[in-house]
Write a structure and sequence with these properties.
By secondary structure, the chain is mainly alpha-helical. It is built from 9 helices and 2 strands. The protein has one domain: Endonuclease III, domain 1. Keywords: Metal-binding, Zinc. InterPro entries: Adenine_glyco, DNA-3mA_glycosylase, DNA_glycosylase. One of its GO terms (molecular function) is DNA-3-methyladenine glycosylase activity.
């Protein structure tokens, strides 16, 4: 039997996924962005990069640093980040406005390079969306929301095969939720059904 938490009605009378209540930054992200499709290479590279940096941290930490990440990584322009050199890595490792983790910084640069190389095969956006699963029933509680799926495992393996790093199955599942490949807004949440 499920022991998770169902959608929560906030002080504003609106039902949301439990993580989207409380902190105003989480609430705004939940209500205006999470689960909505993004468009373009830079938007997909940004989400992939931020999900990789989030690994082991709270998502709120990443959201609070997102503007700094955008500045540090040139708006997630793949060509610019792909050209980063050792000096850029040192600059990033000295930037207190982002998460300073050498493996994640190196992965972000490797992923930008892999994104550029992927353009000949249709591009990052089309590649990620080719792993979109069939829609599933609305999860009733947080206990019904998986952390991985067969599709996220397949996406992870496929990305690693073409040079991406720090793209494990759980990280890729979080990416799939964030950009609307799967709709994990809970039953009763006012955003359920927003994924395209």
């Amino acid at each position: 039997m499920s022991t998770g938490i169902a959608a929560v009605v906030g002080d504003d009378g609106v039902a949301r996924c439990p993580w989207g209540t409380g902190d105003p930054v989480n609430l705004a992200y939940h209500d205006t962005e999470w689960g909505l499709r993004v468009s373009g290479e830079a938007a997909h590279l940004e989400r992939l990069t931020l999900e990789a940096f989030q690994s082991g941290l709270s998502w709120l930490t990443i959201l609070n640093k997102r503007d700094n990440f955008r500045a540090a990584f040139a708006g997630f322009d793949a060509d610019t980040v792909a050209a980063f050199d050792a000096g850029d890595v040192e600059r990033l490792m000295a930037d207190a406005g982002i998460v300073r983790n050498r493996r994640k910084v190196d992965a972000a640069i490797a992923n930008a390079r892999a994104t550029v190389a992927l353009r000949d095969g249709g591009g990052l956006e089309a590649f990620i969306w080719s792993f979109r699963p069939e829609p599933s029933p609305a999860p009733r509680t947080t206990a019904d929301v998986p952390t991985t799926s067969p599709e996220s495992l397949a996406l992870s393996k496929a990305l690693k095969k073409i040079g991406f790093a720090h793209v494990g199955p759980a990280t890729m599942y979080a990416l799939m939720e964030a950009i609307g490949l799967v709709d994990d807004h809970l039953a009763g949440c006012h955003r359920r059904g927003c994924a395209s």
